[in-house]
Amino acid sequence: MIEINGLKKQYGHTTALKDVSLSLPQGEIVGLFGENGAGKTTLIKCILGLLRYKGDIALDGEAITRKNISRLSFATSEHSFFPNLTPAAHAQFYAEHFPRFSERRFKGLMEFFELPKGRSLYSWSAGQKNQFEVILSLSQGADYVLMDEPFAGNDVFNREDFYKMLLGILEPHETVLLSTHLIEEVSGFISRAVLLRKGEIIGDVQTIDLDEQGRDLMDFVKEMYRYRTDRVSRAINDIAEEEE
């Protein structure tokens, strides 16, 4: 289990995370939602140790260090692979550095997404690069897969196929933390939703509980964000009045 307690992060005078506490047991697909600047990327980077922070983050009761960091993997649209290497060279590198690397899963996902095997990644499209980033994160053998907007540049059909594939290949011990703005699109695939706003957690719910209440995820998000349904019409009316 990843346990986060009293997490705080400042960028100069700007507070990115305010006293965030969160537990991530194994075996969940968690959607991490929030507006731009809510703190989603900062939270993920703190978990990975890429940023300095105040508070505590532990993996099964221990600090996350070089000794256990391989239990976490990361997929980001900013990319973390080697652009001049081919997929085969990446697989060899990962197999040498991650004992639990799954060559079988790697090959299966490469074939599923029909990615070019013999070309270096710098010549790939943005969507193909994002798919490969996700493939590496899922093949590393990590218990916790952290994804930060991994589907940028991919069409809706590829994204839907990926969600279905994800549900089919994940082992019971694997957890996915998925940061995305595609709330409605992933609502049928996640088991839990965590909402961030201005660096604070304002909602944390199991989707099965919403189903039992006859509510959908988007309604829950709007409620927690106090979304005003008349916001657009009010703005249009104000603009029209100013132009008269």
How is the secondary structure organized here?
Layout: E1 2-11, E2 14-24, E3 29-34, H1 40-47, E4 54-59, E5 62-63, E6 72-76, H2 87-97, H3 103-112, H4 126-139, E7 144-148, H5 156-169, E8 175-179, H6 183-186, E9 192-197, E10 200-206, H7 207-212, H8 217-224, H9 231-243
Parallel strand pairs: 3-8, 3-9, 6-7, 7-8
Antiparallel strand pairs: 1-2, 1-4, 4-5, 9-10
Helix pairs in contact: 3-4
Summarize it.
The chain is α/β, with parallel strands linked by helices and 244 residues long.
- The helix tally amounts to 9
Instruction: Order the strands across the largest sheet as they lie in space.
Output: 6-7-8-3-9-10
Order of helices and strands: EEEHEEEHHHEHEHEEHHH
Please report which band the strand proportion falls in: under 5%, 5-15%, 15-25%, 25-35%, 35-45% or over 45%. Answer: 25-35%
Portion of residues in helices? 25-40%
- In round numbers, the mean pLDDT is 89
